[in-house]
Amino acid sequence: MRNGTYKKILDKLSQGVFVFDEKLRVQYVNAAFRRAFSDAARVGGTLAQALGCGEKGKCGEGESCEYCAFLRVMRAAISERTEKTETVHSTIQRGGQTDKISMSIRIVPLDEKGKLFMGLTEGTYHTEIEREMLSAGQMQRRLLPAGKSMAGVNYSYMFIPCFAVGGDLPDVYELDGQAYGVLADVSGKGIPAGMLSAFVKAGFDRKQPNLGLALSSLNTKFNELNQDERSYITVAAVRIDKSSGLLRYAIAGHNAPILLKNRYGIHEVESPAPPISNWMADFAYKEKELPFEQGDLLVLLTDGVTECMNAKGELFGIERAENVLMQSHSAEDYIGKLKAALNVFSGGKFTDDITAIAFDL
Q1: CA 219/CA 227 separation, integer angstroms
Q2: pLDDT tens per residue across span 150-173
Q3: Which of the residue ranges 41-50, 150-159, 207-216, 319-328 would you say has the lowest mean pLDDT?
Q4: Per residue in 136-147, is it b (16+ CB within 10 Å) or e — as a string?
Q5: Strand 168-175 and strand 178-186: pairing?
Q6: Opening angle at CA 67, ends 66 and 72, nearest 5
Q7: C-alpha dihedral (334, 337, 340, 346), degrees to nearest 10
Q8: How far apart are CA 333 and CA 338, in angstroms?
Q9: Which residues, in sequence order, are CB contacts of 340 under 8 Å at separation 6+?
């Protein structure tokens, strides 16, 4: 049979089929793959173009590539020149029901030299609503901090959503020559939580230097949404003033404390205050301050870190997070070691969003 006949047969399959080379360049996609991912998929294009994920340049170098299951299993197949399979699971809310969805990705070498590989995909990701969920996750990752330094302050972070769309939001920005960090954790998971985290991104006043006033303003805006009492947002916000050596901070119900590592050890920064919610609509949040010295490390954590659970039902806890911090010499070092410790502790299975930001002071 000629190539055209083979392509007609493959286009009739319900499975998504794609062929790529050892440099991750796509050589063929069938009709089911294009329907599920991107009509722009083309021969000679990148995996990012085939998936329609919006990343530019080489695959593996974009901001969201770390979370790409396709890239992960394709690289493994290329490296080991053997068949590899991975199943991606997620959860969506649909019509008042919680549905579990999955997509299987199978990569098969097509020649002994490992030059060409065929990928097969199947599962409920091929429906429109799952495509939208995938797109929502990609859009959310575009809201993440892009750099590694702000206002002369080096920082590092991790953001590992347990579903395609997460309810955590790390943010770093600059105002009047000072670095600001905000870590929000919204109630719930999945699409509703992702929409609420987008509200935080849009509603937090980046032009307000006083973090207490910024949180109070966010609380007012949240109450205008008329959410029920089960909906809330916890926030930890910091302002790093290198000229004065002062760390200013405000907290709204964030139950994982801010950790400051200095020459005396670990200082847990706590400030009792309710979360952003309609529980206390007119609550006035206050900004507080702490001195810091060159060489100190500052860490913001969500409770997904401290409440990460292992197979025995044990929690990772604040003590383990602090032990990792004591062994770290920089923000980037801490985030790398914390991610590794959480993966070992949980076996790589997370039931909540895992998010942390670290700053070199």
Answers
A1: 12
A2: 989 999 999 887 765 666 888 999
A3: 41-50
A4: bbbebbebbbee
A5: antiparallel
A6: 75
A7: -70
A8: 8
A9: none
The β-bridge relationship of strands 258-262 and 297-301 is: antiparallel
Locate 289 and state its tokens: 């301050």
Pair 17, 30: CB distance under 8 Å = yes
Kindly tell me the burial class for residue 162, based on how many C-beta atoms sit within 10 Å of its own C-beta (0-12, 13-18, 19 or more): buried
- Measured CA to CA, the distance from residue 163 to residue 186 in angstroms comes to 14
Which amino acid is residue 124, in one-letter code? T
Helix (H, G, I), strand (E, B) or coil at 180: strand
The closest of 291, 185, 286, 301 to 240, measured between CA atoms, is 291
Do the Cβ atoms of 290 and 247 come closer than 8 Å?
yes
Tokens for 356? 């942390």
- In whole angstroms, give the CA distance from residue 320 to residue 338: 9
Matching residue, tokens 């009709």: 31
If DSSP states are collapsed to H, E and C, what string results for 303-348? HHHHCCECCCCCECHHHHHHHHHHCCCCHHHHHHHHHHHHHHHHCC
Residue 203 above 50 pLDDT?
Answer: yes
Helices (H) and strands (E) in the chain, counts: 10, 16
pTM, 2 dp: 0.64
Place of tokens 């996750």: 137
Phi, psi of 171 (to 5 degrees): -145, 140
Phi and psi at residue 124, in whole multiples of 5°?
A: -75, 0
Non-local CB neighbours of 47 within 8 Å, separated by 6+ positions: 20, 24, 26, 59, 68, 70, 71, 74
Reading the block at residue 13, the tokens are 């399959």
The full length of the chain comes to 361
Q: For residues 312 and 320, give the distance between their C-alpha atoms in angstroms, rounded to a whole number.
A: 16
The answer to whether the beta carbons of residues 201 and 143 sit under 8 Å apart is yes
